[in-house]
Amino acid sequence: MGKNGYLPLFETKPAGGLVFFRSYAASIFIGICFICFHRVSYFPVTERWVWVGMFVAELWFSFYFFITVIVKWNPVFRSTFKDRLSSRFEEEELPGVDIFVCTADPRLEPPTMVVSTVLSVMAYDYPPHKLSVYLSDDGCSDLTFYALLEASGFAQLWLPFCRKLKVEPTSPEAYFQTTPEPVDDVFMANEWLIIKKSYEDMKNRIESITSLGKVPAYRRKEHNGFDEWDFVLSPHHHPSILQILIDGRDPNAIDIEGKALPTLVYLAREKRPQIHHNFKAGALNALAFDNLTENEIYGSLRVLMKLELAGFDGNGGPCYVGTGCVHRRESLSGMKYSEELAVELKAMKYDKKIIGSASFNEEDCKALASCTYEENTPWGKEKGVKYESLVEDVLTGMSIQSKGWRSVFFNPQREAFLGMGPTTLLDTLVQHKRWGEGELQILLSKHCPFVYGRPNMPLKLQLSYCIYNLWAPNCFATLYYVFVPSFCLFRGISLFPKISSSWGIPYLYVIFVHRVHSLVEYVWLGGTVRGWLNEQRMWMFKRTTSYLFAAIDHMLKLFGFSKSAFAITGKVADDDVHRRYEQEIMEFGTWSPMFTVLATLALFNLLGLIAVVTNNVAIGDARMKIFDVFGFQILLCYVLVFINLPIYQGMFFRKDSVSVWSTEPETRTADLRSDSKFQSVKLQACNTRFVFKEKRSKLVSCICNFPYLFIITYKLLKLLFENLD
Question: Which residues carry out catalysis (predicted)?
Fold first, then answer.
């Protein structure tokens, strides 16, 4: 029984198995101490800087492990009792809720997907006169507006259908894909078929007009709102467009059963070429992924969404991740939390009486959506969603917490919010590049959690933010570990203790136990073993490309060489790409310098492994001795080759691409034959050109278009092989 005799509306429980996790963390810490002692005690006379580099990389990994332990030390999980809500509050006591759905480009985010999302939130089990849904269209597309107009009509059928059948999920696209036709009730089956046909007809109309690329004239005559696009010069140059498609205050805004409909609004914020519009954050201030494959070929946010945010909650409150979140209006308005404010909020009553017609309010609100509205105001700085960051969501959440507001994490058994994840490798890497750069930007700015959040955020919560703030710096230690041990294997330099040595035990223990725990954790959260393998692959791909480019780009921005750019990841793919995604075949998409880095590292480790195997066979009797000395490096090389299997498949075996690089580059300088010419590699790379042949692999043609790094590696390997001979 809670306060005032009421039953509680929710309960909070600590995660199970904390004793095992803390024992595991303590044992890993002991293993790390032994590793550090070995690095300091057995300092080599030669090649000392390579040894120092390994030690520094391992110190970094240890520090990052310490941060992850803090995040996962005390996760809490919450469950609600929604049936008790009606006994606690009358309908009129419930607050008004505004829901924002954001879209940016109808080519990357199909309008059918967007309106299915809109319809799902309109169908919430909540008083419709207290529910308003806003579609913020950053692309200012009349195609998106047309789709929303179609959805406003279909909502009159869909909402009563959801109430009658208690539809879950309330997204029509997801519902009809996963729910079979009811066979027990002939009447309901007939209605089910009618609603499904109505949805498919609407979907076909939207898709056909989207494929045309413009709204036909006869369709434009159906609503006066299309007249607004007569003044649109481009998606980046247009006035504010605000259209109230359903006015929840209008007594005539009802469904086929005579029940009120929630308010539905379309908004495209004004854009002018000379004025920065602050991307999604600017649009929001003016106003879980459901396409994952079984084994999540491009990784997922499973651990982040299901465990790390629960850990944040135990440390003081989860961060804001941009979606699936409910804010109190007062917290976004820049108010500082206090006991006095809490009393005022409890005493507040929701008043739905708003004076003025829909057309009057449209014109009145357009001024609020102008591109200069926030100039010389606190918006974007002290109020609303924060600007000056590529991850405006994280910065906004941190700002709210720094003002004393407390956030909580609630992850219901059935996912409350579903979205669309990237379907190609490049889209995934670009997305994480933006996230990594934005997190690093926060860390190196005045918004650093140790400064910005110091008054009201506990230290453990400030440290928790570092698990994401340090994504980009992770690239340097990872690149060192991926490249240097394999390179030293060529040169006969051992960087780890012998397998037979007692000092090898802590290395083996930390590596094995850490990975086993990661696997158990992933499967416990609902993943598969193969999904975990894909997660490890993407972990390395992101650290060696996305976060590397994020770190480089941010350094360039700090020195004034470039500016922030918001990259939209695709949510739609052509038939061939979609088919390969469903078959869990990695899609490399168009060329990117990120692929050059991936392919270079993959080839380097593959050739290194071949060299080791060849040398091992030639020596014969000394095989075990070599493995004893270089066992850890050989094991690392094997693991890296296994992780890069999709890269090799794309380079040598895939038939869904068009070109391949010739194995012998034509050069204008003499071939490298000895160590004395080792330093000429860079010069020669600049004078190298490739001969192209029409054959198979798109990925390798990417390498040819960005040859500098690859040619250096190619010549290094060629020289090293000659020296080994």
Answer: 138, 393
How many other β-carbons are positioned within 10 Å of the β-carbon of residue 299? 21
Query: How many residues are there in the chain?
Result: 725
> Quick one: how far is CA 234 from the chain centroid?
29
Residue 393 designated active-site:
yes
Q: Which residues pair with 661 in a beta bridge?
A: 692
pLDDT of residue 661 exceeding 80, the answer is no
CB 440 within 8 A of CB 518: no
SS3 179: coil
**How many other β-carbons are positioned within 10 Å of the β-carbon of residue 125?**
9
**In which domain, by residue range, is 323 found?**
96-300+318-342+362-432
pTM of the full structure: 0.81
* Whole-Å CA distances, 627 to 413, 617, 688: 49, 12, 38
Q: State yes or no: is 628 an active-site residue.
A: no
Look up residue 474 and give its two tokens: 């992770």
Contacts of 72 (CB under 8 A, 6+ apart): 21, 307, 308, 311
| CA–CA distances in Å: residue 691 to residues 688, 709, 717 | 10, 17, 20
Tokens of 282: 């600017």
Residue 159 lies in a domain: yes
Counted domains in the chain: 1
Is 162 inside any structural domain? yes
Whether residue 657 is predicted with pLDDT greater than 80 in this model: the reply is no
- Give mean pLDDT, residues 45-52: 86
Q: How far apart are the C-alpha atoms of 87 and 8, rounded to whole Å?
A: 11
pLDDT for the residue 423: 80
Kindly name the residue from 137, 142, 393, 553 that is annotated as catalytic: 393
| Helical H segments across 565-644, by residue range | 575-582, 593-619, 623-643
- Mean pLDDT, the chain, whole residue set: 81
Tokens representing 194? 């009618």
Does 109 count as an annotated binding residue?
Answer: yes
Any domain includes 533: no
Contact 127, 94 (CB under 8 A): yes
**Structure token digits, residue 270:** 């004004």
243: nearest Cα among 219, 261, 260, 268: 268
- Please tell me the predicted confidence (pLDDT) of residue 202: 96
How far is Cα of residue 452 from the mean position of the Cα atoms in its chain?
24
CA dist., res. 416 & res. 326, Å (int): 12
pLDDT band at 586 (very low <50, low <70, confident <90, very high): confident
User: How many of the other CB atoms lie within 10 Å of CB of 520?
Assistant: 14
- Give the number of other CB atoms < 10 A from CB of residue 320: 22
Residue 129 lies in a domain: yes
Contact by Cβ (8 Å): 499, 631: yes
Closest CA to 233 of 199, 268, 208: 268
Alpha carbons within 13 A on the beta-carbon side of 65: 23
CA distance 643 to 631: 18
Selecting among 137, 138, 247, 553, the annotated active-site residue is 138
Angstrom distances, CA of residue 508 to CA of 56, 283, 512, 516: 19, 51, 6, 12
Phi, psi (deg, nearest 5) at residue 419? -135, -160
Three-state DSSP state, 176: helix
The reply to whether 222 sits in an annotated binding site is: no
Q: Alpha helix locations (H) across 444-572?
A: 449-452, 459-469, 474-491, 504-524, 529-541, 547-558
Q: What are phi and psi of 73, to 5 degrees?
A: -70, -40
DSSP for residue 17: T
Joined together, the tokens standing for residue 352 give 């739905």
Of 110, 195, 205, residue with least CA distance to 150: 205
pLDDT higher than 70, residue 567: no
- Specify the DSSP class assigned to residue 122: H
